[in-house]
Amino acid sequence: MIDSHCHLAGEEFENDLDEVVARARDRGVTAALCILAAGNEAESTRAAAVRQAWPDVRFATGIHPHQAGDFGADPDAGVRVVREAVAQHGACAIGEIGLDYHYDFSPRDVQQAVFRAQIALAAELRLPVVIHTREATEDTFRILQDAGGHVRGVFHCFTGDETMARAAFDLDFHVSFAGILTFPRSEGIRAAARIAPAGRILAETDAPYLAPVPHRGRRNEPAYVVEVAARLAEIRGVSADELALQVTQNFMQLFGEGGSRSNPTA
Length: 266
Ligand SMILES: [Zn+2]
Ligand SMILES: [Zn+2]
Fold this sequence. Notes:
By secondary structure, the protein is of the alpha/beta class. The chain has helices spanning about 15-25, 40-55, 75-90, 110-125, 135-145, 160-170, 185-195, 225-235, 240-255, and strands spanning about 1-5, 30-35, 60, 95-100, 130-135, 155, 175, 200-205.
C-alpha cells in the first residue's frame, strides 16, 4: 500500500516522525508521496528529516492555490520557485496545485494564472500534476483541457461525484480517494469510487488533515491509508490485497521513475 498524498514535512510531525513512519510500515504502507509547499524554507528543511526517516518517500512540490497570492503580480517568479524546488527535492510531480474557491485565500484570477503557469512547467518537465480543486470544478477542467492533453495527473482528495470522475477519466487523469470516503454523508464519492476503472484509482490520507473513520477528528497519519483502502475495497467488491496491489501499480505507473527516489543510492 502507498499513501499517495500526505504532508509529512509539516510541523505536526516534527516531534514523532520516526514513530509515525514505523506505524505506517508496520501496517504495510511501503511508501508515500510527500507534498512540499514550494518556497517554504521550514518545510524544505524538514523534508530532509522525512527523507532520512523514510527513504522510500517520494516528493511533489508546487504552489497551493492558498499561496498563489504570494506570486500574484508575477506568476513567472512562482514558476522559478517551483522549478528550483523540483530540482532540490528530486520531485516526481508538481503539486499540489489548482483552484480553491471555497476559501478564496487568493483572488481567483491569480489562482488561475499561477495554476496555468505550473501546468505549463509540468508539461515542459514531463512531470505529472497533483490537483487540488474545491468548488472550482468548471474552471479546473477548462484550464486542464487548455493544456491539450499534455499533462497527466491525479485529482487528490477526490470529493466529486460520478460525473466529475468520468470527466477526470476522459482527461486520462487518476482520482485519489481520502478519508472523506469513509464519512457517512459521502454517498456521491462512493458512487464515483464504484464506477472508477481499476487502473485509475489511488488512496491517500492527506495527513495531517481529515483522518478517516474510526480516527476522525484526530491527527491523520500515513498508517491510516489502510482504513481508506479497506473502505475502497469494500465499495468495489475486491479483496484488500487486490486493492493494495492495484493502487501500488497505479501509483508507480503515474509517478513512475520520474524524479529521483528520495535516497538516490538505494
Ligand atoms: Zn489539497
Ligand atoms: Zn494536501
